[in-house]
Design brief:
By secondary structure, the protein is α/β, with parallel strands linked by helices. The strands form 5 sheets. The chain has a 5-stranded mixed beta sheet with strand order 3-6-5-4-7. Helix 14 packs across helix 15.
Length: 634
Amino acid sequence: MKNGKNLFRKKDNSKFYLIAFAVLFLALVARIVFVGTTNNTKVKTGDVAVAENTVKAPIELSFSDVLRRANDIKTMEINKDDVATGVLKDGTPYRATITYNPELLEKLSVGGTAVSINRNDSTWDMIGKGLPIAVSVLFLFWLLRLLRGGSGGGAGGITRSLIGQNPTKITTGKTKTTFKDVAGIDSEKRRLIEVVEFLKNKDKFKSLGARVPRGVLLSGEPGTGKTLLARAVAGEANVPFFATSGSDFSGIIVGLGVAKIKEIFDLAKRNAPCILFIDEIDAIGQSRSKHSFNDNDREQTLNQLLIKMDGFANDTGIIVIAATNRPDMLDTALLRPGRFDRQIHIDLPNLEGRRDILDLHAKKFKIDDKVSMMDVARGTTGFSGADLENLLNESALHAVRAGHKSVEQSDIEEARDKILMGPKKNRKMRPEDIKLTAYHEAGHAFVALHYDGIVDPIHKATIIPRGRALGMVQHLPIDDKVSMTIEEVRATLSVDLAGRASEEVFFGKNKITTGAESDIAMATRIARRSITTAGLSDKIGMVAINQANTFGQRIAIENASEKTAEAVDGEIKTWLDNAYKDAKNLITKNKARVEKLAKALLDKETLSGEEIREIISDKKVVAKKTSKKSNAKK
């Protein structure tokens, strides 16, 4: 099997019938428009010039005019629509709508009018009668041919003719991806080895009466490798891989999703053993409720999926793997044993996992030997596998722009800063704003260095604006923290508020700025979470107080009284006030060192962690030649 086009056994001529049907339908519409325009045309009296000859336009006579001027009419021809045309005795043509009446005809004959009656249909009338019949017959013939088994038989044939030969957009064939191509999620791979073994040797399991999971649900943040892992299972077992998306089962035609579910499962059965992968299954697998009457088609599609999965025999050799970012939205019937009876949550990679992912992706790029992937992994906490691959790609792009022969550490750092903070801003800043930013970041850096060993080590400090930030102090974690002690929480709060404290110490309370907005927001989140969910406050105690923000309504605190809410707000303010006082006292006592650090930032714009330590320890800092060039450019 090379591609999805060879999966169906026959071809049909449904496109020919569709084209013929469309042509006849357009002809019918044209006939209706033409006849309607002709019948509704009003003719005015007067002269009309036609090919250089002046011909009198027919006058419009009413029925009473015909009765009154019967003796003036020379000829009259009456068609089947009781429309009379002819000429008067003075040669003037006329047109009139009359009522068929023998007495009128007798009166006209007495007056010398030559009357003729033509009840035959015109060519357009005959076409108008025949077209609807022809269109209906052709359409019924097309449907009957499909139901008779034109391309796969029954409703499947109709489905394919309505939306193409491959309605579910199935990606088919054997994949070359194996577990060697998946890094950073070793525990998840181990849980899927049983599936691979079953696909390779199912008799070993049947001999012991064991039943391998029929369905595996992969959940996790976007970019963590769910689709890659599903392909790797198929590649490791060397079986066909069928991939589709949950959104492919929905459409404007009611019942189409059910037909698609039947089709893809029949396709999988004909190619068993195989992997059937459904990405973003929450598009059709959302939880049903007694009040959900607005999307019956989606529920019918879900019911069909449940039936198909429950109808599997133990020896079919079909493994259904689904992926979603929102497992909480899925219907409980979909998650019961016998359907998706194995659920694997893929977390964001830890430090070792990030290094393995970087090493894997680095094989595709020309990386300088001096680049430390462990340092890159330490500085990318919270990055998914897709984010890390994008980081290296952005680094390679920056290396090309910079004219480097390989990707250097500076290229990777630039790409990381761009991803985290945004691109560099070539904005013109006032000298006083640049100076204030330097003292702000110097305050952060000094307090962070004071709590060295408690908070994460400093990697660098810069006053180069990126995104909305005018500067930043970047930390490089030694490892991934699972939790924080209360000592770490208090030290982190002091570091966060040290920028505002430095502004007040050096410029006065009237010169503080809004630059600490994000710092205050971050400190508030840490303090609130520590107090309301972690139980780190002696005043509030070990009580879980959930925060809620439902459907746009601002609900400050849930499952707590107003008195408790006020106490929580007061405790948060106390924690932040104490952290601010601590940072302010440290900066005040070491004002000269912080000022020296700020002046170094003004001079070089960016300082590494080692340079910051040398400045604070009163060691001589050797300025790099490249920094002067960069300052000259700016």
